[in-house]
Design brief:
Blueprint lengths: L1 H17 L12 E5 L2 E4 H18 L7 H28 L5 H9 L5 H6 L11 H12 L4 H28 L5 H10 L2 E11 L12 H10 L5 E2 L2 E10 L4 H20 L3 H8 L19 H5 L6 E7 L2 E25 L5 H17 L4 H8 L11 E5 L9 H9 L5 E6 L3 E25 L4 H17 L3 H11 L3 E7 L5 E2 L3 E2 L1 H9 L9 E2 L3 E11 L2 E2 L2 H25 L5 H8 L4 E6 L5 E2 L3 E2 L1 H6 L14 E2 L3 E12 L8 H25 L5 E3 L1 H4 L4
Antiparallel strand pairs: 1-2, 1-22, 3-17, 3-21, 4-16, 5-11, 5-15, 6-7, 7-8, 7-10, 9-10, 12-13, 14-15, 18-19, 20-21
Helix pairs in contact: 1-6, 1-7, 2-3, 6-7, 9-19
Length: 695
């Protein structure tokens, strides 16, 4: 039985790895992209997306994925392919290989791969047991379907990649070194602080209107600072939305339908089932405390007597009647742990039941349910944290596991139960805490959504079509909006593979149009879920250095600041002393204490790294005033009055400091190596926008 459960667990884990598998199950198709010459076909890309969506839905308890979730998964599928191929190339270039002996050692060592530790644990001892692997492999040889063999091959690939990655990271980490000379230098930098006198001429003393900048100057600044102005391909649109809003007649029709249903609800003997079948909100068969209930008119509803009705009232785009079904005393917060044992086959009920009963006996005898859950539970919600649930207020579990939650509320703390989940399997559950018991109510909400009628939708479409037909160029588009007092909106930084636009929701057709259109083009009328949209293309940005019009405000600010600095420095006229600088600019001489070379922040000035550095310039020391320094907020002239010994730790421990510095560097490398170095140095071609144009 243990072997069967282990195999199921491995499949669950490896489904995630299929998402990043190397070989597509489908035939030749269009190429959505490639990296370093390796192509990703449309069929494989779609396969990756579908596998990831299935896993995401499982982790969400079967709930539907939103547009944002799907868009995120599409990007993860692409990034997964890039990471596979780029890292494989790195392994090959560096000659990183994984031998059979190493794979055996991964399995047999005291610190095996995490997935091995997760699934190959003996429930009787709670310890990792490599002999279970031998038993699984023996069963695989006898499996006529070949499925177990395929699962083990996937596991072997996972172990192989894990070991290759470990070798690669080890090579990188071995190159990280924090030498003693650097530690000594930083120690010296931190050993003193400076007290300075300074003259500060802020840039704001010169009006912006008096400093003229030309496009030639702005473009030169961009070219001189290209690295700061690298952008990805994007589009910019402005649009007019004709929203489909239910009319008064639509609301009246919905209310009339709801009143008829309410009359039936008044007389039915089973209000819960009636509400489940007839309410737009469905029915939650749960008790909630007053604090946990989050609906309009809550106070009036919670105070209803059992059988009482309140309404109608508005809740978003729905009209609602609320009926009080029951009251009781219930814990506000509930904690329990459970192990889910699924049915394995047509005759698997008895096997699953025996396993559940065995686990129950072990737990009643003092066994650690958390350790057992890590090995045996197939509940994706809780496997990662030892089967534990904490439920408070509106917290929910998947519908399939609702009997577990109900039993946990109804039972007593410390109780262990085996609960049958129809058509799924069994749950071994232990109640660990019932916190803050108090009044709770069960309410049925009979709701009718107020939808726009076809007549209302047609009216909005007619208005959109009329506007579009009369305004076929950008000038008339903008003029009509202004004359009619309409609300024009903006969607900026639209990427080629975007499916969702802020304010519009799912809008792939608009994205595709934007990438086919020219600047100033007017779109056709787009039909979205609850609106009709007309857009105008206002900007097309290609990948590379940003054009001036896209970054004009920030570039103008920098160029104007530089020109102001030149004016201020010229006015100072190479001052020999700080007093001369003060006289030339009519600014006072001020002081600042505690200036540190190790920190760019000066207490009296804010972030001014050039001032902090200049205070420790040995060419000036305490004898001379500095040359004019262009800072972040103005131009400075400084003079060091004295240096003060800073408070230092009792002892300088190079070994400890080295360990800390190298640890921090390794963490930074782990985070930045792939996205900022390996990925940028790779030859990546992303064709997805072309392949999925309009999809």
């Amino acid at each position: 039985m243990i072997i069967v459960l282990i195999c199921v667990a491995i499949v669950s884990f490896l489904l995630q790895d299929v998402f990043f598998g190397r070989n597509s199950m489908f035939g030749q198709s269009n190429v959505v992209g490639k990296v370093n010459g390796v192509e990703l076909e449309t069929a494989e890309y779609q396969n990756r997306i579908e596998n990831a969506q299935r896993i995401a839905q499982q982790n969400m308890g079967g709930l539907s994925l939103g547009d944002e979730d799907i868009q995120r998964i599409r990007e993860q599928a692409w990034d997964g392919f890039l990471q596979e191929q780029i890292m494989s190339g790195q392994f090959e270039k560096l000659g990183i290989e994984v031998t059979e002996t190493e794979l055996v050692d991964i399995v047999r060592s005291k610190t095996p791969h995490p997935v091995m530790m997760r699934y190959f644990v003996n429930p009787e001892t709670g310890q990792y047991d490599p002999t279970l692997i031998d038993r699984v492999r023996e069963n695989a040889r006898q499996d006529q379907t070949g499925q177990m063999t395929a699962q083990l091959e996937m596991l072997d690939r996972e172990l192989h990649d894990y070991q290759a990655r470990n070798k690669y990271i080890t090579l990188i980490n071995q190159a990280i070194n924090y030498p003693k000379w650097m530690a000594d230098m930083q120690q010296a930098d931190n050993a003193k602080t400076a007290t300075i006198s300074y003259v500060h001429v802020p840039y704001v003393t010169i009006a912006d209107s008096t400093v003229k900048v030309t496009d030639a100057e702005l473009n030169k600044y961009i070219q001189d600072h290209k690295a700061s102005f690298q952008v990805e391909e994007s589009r910019r649109i402005e649009y007019l939305s004709f929203d489909v809003i239910p009319s008064a007649a639509d609301t009246a029709a919905a209310l009339a339908d709801l009143v008829k249903l309410k009359e039936e609800l008044d007389t039915t003997s089973d209000p819960a089932s009636f509400t489940k079948l007839n309410s737009e909100l469905g029915f939650d068969d749960i008790f909630l405390s007053r604090n946990a209930i989050q609906v309009p008119e809550k106070d009036s509803i919670v105070d209803l007597p059992v059988g009482g009705m309140y309404g109608p009232y508005r809740d978003g785009n729905a009209i609602v009647f609320a009926k009080m079904l029951a009251r009781k005393i219930q814990a506000d917060t509930l904690k329990f742990s459970h192990i889910f044992i699924p049915l394995q086959s047509a005759n698997g009920d008895s096997i699953a039941k025996k396993t559940a009963d065995s686990l129950e006996a072990v737990i009643r005898g003092g066994g650690d349910i958390a350790a057992l859950a890590t090995v045996f539970s197939q509940d994706p919600y809780s496997k990662q944290n030892g089967g534990e649930y904490t439920l408070a207020g509106l917290a929910r579990v998947p519908n399939e596991f609702a009997p577990v939650k109900e039993a946990a509320y109804e039972g007593s703390v410390g109780q262990v139960k085996v609960i049958k989940l129809p058509n799924l399997g069994y749950s071994v559950m232990k109640i660990t805490a019932q916190i803050n018991p108090g009044p709770a109510v069960k309410v049925a909400y009979l709701a009718k959504r107020v939808d726009a009628s076809s007549a209302t939708s047609t009216e909005a479409l007619s208005a959109a079509n009329e506007f579009a037909s009369k305004n076929r160029d950008r000038k008339s588009f903008d003029k009509s909006i202004q004359e009619q007092g309409l609300n024009k909106r903006l969607a900026n930084n639209i990427r080629p593979m975007d499916y969702v636009l802020p304010g519009l929701g799912s809008a792939r057709d608009i994205v595709s149009w934007a990438y086919d259109a020219d600047v100033n083009d007017i779109s056709p009328v787009f039909t979205l879920e609850d609106k009709f949209v007309i857009a105008v293309m206002t900007g097309a940005r290609e990948e590379g250095t940003a054009p001036l019009e896209d970054v004009r405000p920030q570039v103008e600010a920098e160029v104007r600041k530089n020109k102001k600095a030149d004016q201020i420095i010229a006015k100072m006229n190479n001052p020999a002393t700080i007093e001369a600088a003060a006289t030339a600019t009519n600014q006072p001489v001020l002081t600042a204490d505690g200036v540190s070379f190790a920190s760019p922040f000066v207490a009296a000035l804010g972030p001014e790294p050039r001032i902090a550095g200049a205070a420790f310039n040995k060419a000036w020391g305490t004898a001379k005033s500095s040359s004019p320094i262009q800072g972040l907020s103005g131009v400075y002239v400084i003079k060091v009055n004295n240096y003060v010994d800073a408070e230092q730790p009792a002892a300088y421990d190079y070994a400890t400091q080295r360990l800390a510095q190298e640890r921090d560097t390794r963490q930074m490398v782990d985070q930045l190596l792939f996205p900022l170095i390996l990925k940028k140095k790779s030859n990546i071609k992303d064709n997805r926008a072309e392949i999925y144009r309009g999809n």
